[in-house]
Amino acid sequence: MPQSTEPPPVGQRLRLVRRRITAATLATFVAAWLAVAALGKGGSTSTAQTSPSPTTATSTQNDGGASSAQSDDPESDGFGPSQSGDGSGSGADSGSSQSSGQQGGPVTTGQS
Amino acid sequence: MKEHARTVEVFGGRVALLGAGREAPLALAVAEALLRRMHAALTRFDPRSELCRLNDDARLTVPASVLVRRLAAAVPYAGALSGGLVDATVEPAFAPERTAPAGDPRPATPDPQRRWAQVSVDAAAVSRPPGVALDSGGLGKGLAADLVAGRLRGLPSYAIECMGDVRAAGAERTLRIASPWSDEVLAELPLTDGAAATSGVTRRGWHLIDPSTGRPARTGIVQATALAPTALEAEVRAKAALLSGPAAARDHLPHGGLLVLDDGELVSV
Questions:
Q1: What pTM was computed for the model?
Q2: ipTM metric
């Protein structure tokens, strides 16, 4: 069967280009989705079911955080400058620190 | 509820991160990246770090990143909160001593020069008298825990263990206080939303400095644990309590804490 050496008509070329753009967009989306999924499950992250631990000592000494929140921080890395200049505005999150009544894993404080 | 865990080796030690919720794995990964950036910027043991370059800079005012500005802002905060006992401008010119300093225990006292009060921060730079070096030691740990908490605050619950400094929210937990002499747990407290920090002289030697002498302090307290709303405040209060000695330590622990005296006696505040 003889093959035509003429270029495809303009309409056909436009359809081809449109199809390629669509395919590239879809591929980018899928790749991004896979990357986020892989990152979320990667690294040294592990999961653990925490269990209640007995407590023996005195009263809870929490006051729910007293420093300023950072959600309005204009800096791109999210830390921003100290808002009060006294160093106390470092990451407190009184707005989101409601107790859920759930049991979390134990934590330890000691000399480093 | 299931909690995800992640550990990060930074600041010459190990930071443990806990977080619950579907978004926890990604949030913990972001927190790890933040910790590594903090380490690179604030370490005192790499002359290329931004903090070392700041300390070597002869200018009065030096442009600085937000991380270094946060640390610098913590210096006058710590000085004011502790009455000058926690002075992050005092740079120890010696290695920690393994044996107790000679003489009877006595409270540490502030340096009358108050160099910490001469450190200031604006929107883009750090100002301090040239030659005054900033020490990221204890303040850096508390600051790191608080900044990471800011990253994890969208999770239902989280906790950060940053080499003795703890910050947690969203779930009822057990806070274990380690013994100054062994790996045993000395006491347990309930902790829901807040922070804790411990300072002591039995693990790393006598490295806590009396600001007025520049020498290791021996005050009659070998370990102090402080509770506070933020890890930075807890860190400052723990150090201040230890440095002030048994008679005045309570004044530095308004949110509570635990003291271990020279003779092993426990004092709950």
A1: 0.74
A2: 0.82
